Amino acid sequence: MLWPARAILLRDFRIALSYRLNAVLTLAGTLFGVTLWYFLSRAVSPTSSGWDQGSYFGYVVLGTAFLGYVNMALHTFGQKLKQDQLTGTLEVFLGSPGSPVLLVAASLLWDLVAQTLQVAATVGIALLFGLRLHLGSPLGLLLLLALTVVTFAALGLAASSLLLVFKRGEPITPFVGGLFALLGGVFFPPSVLPPLLASLSRLLPLPYALEGFRGLLLEEWTLRQVLPDLGALALFCAVLLPTAFVAFPLCLRVARRYGLLSTY
Amino acid sequence: MSDALQLQGVAFSYPAFPQGVGWLMGRARPPVTPFAGVSFAVAPGERVCLMGPNGSGKSTLLRLILGYLPPSEGTSRVLGHDSREGVARRLVGMVHPDERSFYWRLTVRENLAFFGALWGLAPADSARRAAESAEAVELSPWLDRPFSDLSTGTRQRAAIARALLHDPPVLLMDEPTRSLDPLSAARFREWLTGPACAGKALLVATHNPEEARLLAGRCLVLGRGRLLHDGPPPSDAALPSLMGGAP
Predict the structure, then answer these.
(1) Closest chain B residue to the Cα of A162, Cα to Cα
(2) What is the residue extent of each domain of chain A?
(3) Does residue A39 belong to the interface with chain B, where contact is any CB pair within 8 Å?
(4) Which of these, B186, B12, B100, lies nearest to A84 by C-alpha position?
């Protein structure tokens, strides 16, 4: 499995490198985004709105930066499966001797690297606008990042399994992405939501991830302080990973049985 | 020694979608059985052509042998291994009819190295085999060109090179000369019958009776839901009645 995973990473890197204008435009988009949040944060008056989360600029920049991991994990598999269906490489890919689930999971590798670079660029630009980071525990940060990616990758794999059978719609990912943006504490704390929605937000993994990232990067949280969030994410992983590893082979089996692999 | 390919009583059906599911998918479909009761064997090193009218199940049969599709009945084995096992997939190379099944933004070399790794080759072996397979089909001058730059004929050469990467003892081909001009098709057949594919069992699906006669001394004809003929390539006179329409 090592060589196929390495080859998939290299493939995606080379293809990404061939779209240079896309990289430039993505960076420009990041710059515009951070600029937007900077000026918006200057318009938000902390005292009048009851804001008690410190700098809104830091809050929203980190929220949107790490929301990118959610979008990556929820959309990447679907996009790649769709692309491979359209180009005809899916049959070749899934017909190779390796485990189809592991091969598809390996497709996340380059996007993880790219998204991390995107986050670094976002934070880097925000630093130029005056964002101050106070890193607490690097180990905590790494663990939090790993659990966040695995959680959302598992969710994305499970959701995109439906794409193998139903071909279009990836029915869950846009809905889930919107739900996370609204309830996940990306743009505002869930505590400002009506009580029912605020309670619902605790059933999602994103608020725990964002709480941990903000604590570790803005408030110098120690590993001990981020443990509750790490524990919550580990619980989500424990549920979502097995679900994904059951759903994908099941949908693949159905797609093979009904002759749907080569259609789109 | 085991047969390179052995099919015993193989049937395949595309089942109807469960009620409601077909509606959700935008297509209700009755069950379709392209073929049933198909039995044949291909010896190591033997070249066999597979013919049949459109809809007779040639592509389906090749996908079944490759392990993409599960048989509804019967067994399909590659050198004694069930087609669905990973072991069997390492023994088969497929020349896909779809020239889209490469990554057009990558060079030929990068494509071949990728697929070699997908079949378990270490990077150094993958690179070496990519060069050797390309050499075998005179693809070397194009190795470092983007795949999108290649002509149709050259892309088909890349498809053969890909199938040869892991040096499989069995090669399957689904209408490999479909998009080729007569000269390129003739050159393609030279590679199939030359050193590049020497010693390998070949099963080639083709619509072209002349090609079947040039490539192989044995021909299987699928039609009307079963194997209609297993023997020397049929004559032009016998073909219309033999291939008369899909089931």
Answers:
(1) B25
(2) 2-257
(3) no
(4) B100
To which residue do tokens 């193989």 refer? B10
pLDDT digits (tens, 9 = 90+) for B33-80: 888 999 999 999 999 999 988 888 899 999 999 988 889 999 999 999
Contact B106 A11 (CB under 8 A): yes
- What integer pLDDT is reported at residue B243 of this predicted model? 66
- Positions in chain A whose pLDDT score sits under 50: none
> Percent of chain A having pLDDT more than 90?
32
Is A242 an 8 Å CB contact of chain B?
no
pTM summary value: 0.84
Contact with chain B for residue A98, Cβ under 8 A: yes
Of A3, A10, A167, the CB nearest to B122: A3
Could you tell me the end-to-end alpha-carbon distance of chain B, in angstroms, rounded to an integer? 36
Asked whether the beta carbons of residue B96 and residue A88 sit closer than 8 angstroms, the reply is yes
- Decide if A171 touches B, using CB distance below 8 A: no
State whether ipTM is beyond 0.85: no
Separation between Cα atoms, residue B228 and residue B56, nearest integer Å: 11
pLDDT > 90 fraction of chain B, expressed in percent and rounded: 49
Amino acid at B86: G
**Rounded distance, CA A102 to CA A84, Å?**
16
Q: Residue B247: pLDDT band by 50, 70, 90 thresholds?
A: very low
Judge: B68–A103 Cβ closer than 8 Å, yes or no. no
- Measured between alpha carbons, how far is B63 from B94 in angstroms, rounded to an integer? 9
Q: Is B57 in contact with B212 (CB distance < 8 Å)?
A: no
Considering only the beta carbons, identify the residue of A3, A86, A94 that sits closest to B121.
A3
- Would you call A91 and B105 a contact, using CB atoms and an 8 Å cutoff? no
CA distance A164 to B227: 31
Interface test with B, best of A2, A18, A258 (most B CBs within 10 A): A258
Sign of CA dihedral A64, A68, A71, A73: negative
A126 CB contacts (<8 Å, ≥6 apart)?
A34, A37, A38, A57, A58, A61
Pick from A7, A8, A259: which is nearest to B69 by CB? Answer: A259
Q: What is the CA radius of gyration of chain B?
A: 18
What amino acid is encoded at B80 in this protein? G
Among the listed residues A166, A165, A168, A203, the one whose alpha carbon sits nearest the alpha carbon of residue A185: A203
Tell me the two tokens of residue B102. Answer: 């490469």
Quick one: A67 exposed, middle or buried, by C-beta within 10 A (0-12, 13-18, 19+)? buried
The string of pLDDT tens digits covering residues B88-140 is: 989 999 988 766 789 999 999 999 999 999 998 999 999 999 999 999 888 99
Indicate which of A96, A103, A107, A168 best probes the interface with B, i.e. most B CBs within 10 Å of its own CB: A96
pLDDT of residue B114: 94
